[in-house]
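Summary for the funding panel

The consortium committed to producing paired sequence-structure records for every protein in the target list. Below we show the first two records in order, beginning with the earlier of the two.
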Amino acid sequence: GAGGAAALERVMGGGPLSLVLGGLGVLLLFRMVRRLRPGARVRDSVVVITGASSGLGRECARVFHAAGARLVLCGRHAGRLQETVEELNETHPPSTVTFDLSEAGAVERAAEEILRLHGNVDVLINNAGISYRGNILETDLSVQRAVMDTNYFGPVALTQALLPSMVRRRSGHVVVISSIQGRIAIPHRSAYAASKHATQAYFDCLRAEVERYGLEVSVVSPGYIRTNLSRNALTGDGSQYGVLDRTTAMGRDPADVARAVLEAVRRRSKDVLLAGLLATVALYLRTLCPALFFKVMAMRARKEQRPEAAGGGGAGGGGAGGET
């Protein structure tokens, strides 16, 4: 009746409900305005892609090439990079730069070569990476360092080498392919998850610091992707895992992820989560009910006593889908 309406009006007038609804309204308005903003131009932009000889990196090369970008493809193996080049048409023939992302000196020289090719970089896609499967108790510290060198220090070194040229031009977009494991960690992925957590933190800081120069920073966090990342993963003794995880085999099509990366560049998205329902639930569980999340992860760890079983079901995720 009238009394109920008056009570509702009082609540809406200044109570918590009005704050919640007002906040949702502002959020929806913000999203509408962002969608109306014209997308960034990709055609004729200089786009650098690391790990471009396989997996997600190769798919990104195809997608950005089709969009008319001028590509600089990077990787360790010249022959494999050339295979990627040969798959693309001759409208905008890509350039290639061969180097090992885990070697600091090689990264510096590669950055100089990249800038010599076109004079500037419009978009840097830090995609290259390696994964890891193993029990912490049986993993040598050198393996932890190797994963961190490639997945964290490599992208940081290349970004910082190219960043001054972007700052001078007041233009540039840095993208890093992280992982859902940059947000949560699951058993038998310690080195990988740690490297992605560090990556998330660094590029979040970078985004805040370079906003004043008009630069964009995007962190893209996929779940599992159907690439050879798990086959090439390091084990505790530094050897290759050699097995295609069941969850990886059932993961996202790398072409779909590559298109999402292109859209993130066009829309200047700051943080993109590409994960399924289970991974998304785990992410919120870690935030809202950490005790339950830790219990679930402990149960998973007991179930997966052998590293070979670590690819079973769960909320984890792959990340960069290209080799170094």
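The next record, for a separate protein in the list, is shown here:
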Amino acid sequence: MHRRPPRTRLFAAALAATLAVVAAATTTAGYAAAAGCRVAYTIGSQWSGGFTANVNVTNIGDPVSGWTLRWSFTAGQSVSQAWNATVTQSGSTVTAVNAGWNGSLPTNGSAGFGFNGGWNNSANPVPTSFTLNGVTCTGSVGPTTSPTVAPTTAAPTTPPPGGVPPQRTVRVYWLKPTDVAYDQRYPDGIANVMREAQRYYRQELGRTFTLNNPVVEVVNGDHPRAWYENTPNGNECYWWVVFNMQQELMRKLSLRAPDTRWINVGEISAEASCSGGGGGGGWVILSGHDADGAAGIGGTMNRWYGGMVHELGHAFGLPDSTSTDGTPMSASFYNYPNTHFSQAQKDRILSGPYGSFLS
């Protein structure tokens, strides 16, 4: 669950609605009306095999109450120790999540952190691209627009082991690329996030959705991680990973977009520095940082719980809030569980196309 960062993206109902981002991711989750950022990355000192770097990120868009900064190393560098942020690395992609005391970034607010790293004694270039909560840092503020999504079709395939789950339920998938090792933390962690979201919806609406058993269907991907990250799909690289995942899930499992039989939640262990995710039209599609977060890697669990509640809200038909209003459809999802649906949002979920899925 991006998370999920400050920009609104919704995916289509009847393949004409739009996919909405987080965190999560999830960040990437709830986004502000405009987003922008700039990053200063400096190498403080360097020695044989090691270096120290300092990173300062400035939010020049609408205020955020939690941040995730991502970039990719291009020369095999690695992070070994960090301070003032939780920093993790998957392949070349580095994810930095705010510490407990520096998560709030008002407009023009900044936060800094540092880390020790390793390099190959040949080249240690400064990263050229960063994303803050899924938004590429260009040094300017841009409106949050929604992409146009081309219709996709799904070819029939063999039902999953144990048969096809009952309709009018929430199906959840972890797509594992061919070069990613199986790790039980991922299906277990994603299942726990879904159970918490299930509990929250019952608390807020008096009814909730049904999960299947097992909660998470593990799907072995057809490609290595880099293929999902680098194969263009959609009008910007933000969507490549999750659209590639979604279309493979549709092909393998005979799914549709939108799908009147199930609400579908897909997470994949792949992510480029520009990757994000979102929800809408009965789907939630999330990239690597949400899968990592659910598995307990990268940030507090409240952020991933709140991000999933947010993205499921989009899947049920809710738009982003226009301000940080205390509801999980705004940046208030970062304060989970101290956030609540408004009565208008509850009514819209229950009267929407998937309201009958709740019991």
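Regarding this second record: Residues 1-34, 143-159 have pLDDT under 50 and may be disordered. The longest helix spans residues 185-205.
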